[in-house]
Amino acid sequence: MMAQSSANDKCLNITTLDAKDIRWPTSLGAHGSDAMHTDPDYSCVYVTIHTAEGIRGYGMTFTLGRGTDIVLMAVKAMKRFVENRTTASIYQNFAKFWREITSESQLRWIGPEKGVTHLAVAAIVNALWDLWGKIRAVPVWRLLTEMEPEELVSTIDFRYITDAITPEEVIDILRKNKTLRKTKTEDLIENGYPAYTTQVGWLGYSDDLIRSLCKKYLRAGFTAFKIKVGQDLENDIKRCKLVREEIGWDNKLMVDANQIWDVNTAIEWMEKLKDFQLLWIEEPTSPDDVLGHKKIAEALKKYNIGVATGEMCCNRVLFKQFLQANALEFCQIDSARIGGVNEILSVYLMAKKFGVKVCPHAGGVGLCEMVQHLQMWDYTSVSCSKQERMVEFVDQQHEQFLHPAVINENACYAAPTAPGYSTELKPEAVSMFEYPGGSEWQRMFAEEIFKNE
Ligand SMILES: C[C@H](O)[C@@H](O)CC(=O)C(=O)O
Ligand SMILES: [Mg+2]
């Protein structure tokens, strides 16, 4: 395996950054629905970074319909950090670039490092990693794996986390694991990385649909399943029972409340579900409530139910607190929620230090495509383990991508081979689903399936 340094990279001239609002009408089939997001239209802000040399980087952040236009405005406000500069000026000190874009003296007032501005940073930064992978002609998981520890560290902004982990400690972790890289890489290429599915359990699905989807994913080799809970206790009991009838008791079952409960309600509700042998309760309460999660985790320990959270954890600082407080058992990073790959690397490394398993969130557009790369790097270079770890898989919009995530016959993510971050949409996906002008949206407005508001 040849390690390359950014000083040897081909240097491209970035010309423009273009961003689009793309939405799919998933609410029509209740796909993606949960206790809090009852009518999600899976959407994204889709960024293209153009270079004078013709190579493009694609990136995205995941949104739910309304509000995508607001994130789009934030991306447009940040274009100037990228346009008319060289790729070398970014990659040779990527952490410095990341700090610039997250710390802009006026924009940071409406963050900082959280919410709309951070989603916008994620879309741009993800596009830069796609471009970097293309420059080195490798998929991003290999780009990360093949980096020298010092170069990897140079992409991370350690501000606010040095009390938990330092660059020296990271270099130490990566150096120690270097001998494992080759065998772990070969294993990924041969076997892929384990997945679980939430596709059986969206809250708006009928009982019959849930049963038939359980059968479908069991046939496909899945052994771990997640369903949505939290709106109605009797209904949750009925659905857990139904899913257990279908998947049996040897397979894993997880539940996800998407933040609907207060802390004490979460404990009481989960006590009523304890007999279903649940591996985890996900997002039981506010994503910001570290001590609330800790209280829930302590109360549910005796039932062997772990607490999982992270898909809406706003940045590395909050992740740090969850880890320091021992408030979660499963850390669910999301590839488009915090500030893109650079910040997520720091979360993986802190999770390693605190001995917490990362099981990434991927319920959204493009999230499976992106996060597989990060978890594969974790396997080759950080935790170096698949033990009790798995990546979420939802069967949504993969056909819209040029290089979609692929699940193999063992229900594992196949290791991506195409250079980049698997983020490029097919041109027809853009022309059909750009909002509101795309041909599918125009048809749905004309047929009054949706209002153009
Ligand atoms: C709105 C999204 O579909 C959300 O429900 C996804 C999620 O929580 C998950 O996949 O986990
Ligand atoms: Mg979730």
TrEMBL record:
Protein's UniProt keywords contain Lyase: yes
Obligatory cofactor(s): Mg(2+)
GO biological process, one term: carbohydrate catabolic process
Molecular function as annotated in GO: L-fuconate dehydratase activity; magnesium ion binding
Keywords: Lyase, Magnesium, Metal-binding
Reaction(s) catalysed by this chain's protein: L-fuconate = 2-dehydro-3-deoxy-L-fuconate + H2O
Domain Mandelate racemase/muconate lactonizing enzyme C-terminal, residue spans: 207-303
Name of the protein in question: Mitochondrial enolase superfamily member 1
Organism the protein comes from: Aedes aegypti (Yellowfever mosquito)
Lineage: Eukaryota, Metazoa, Ecdysozoa, Arthropoda, Hexapoda
Name of the gene this protein is made from: 5570500
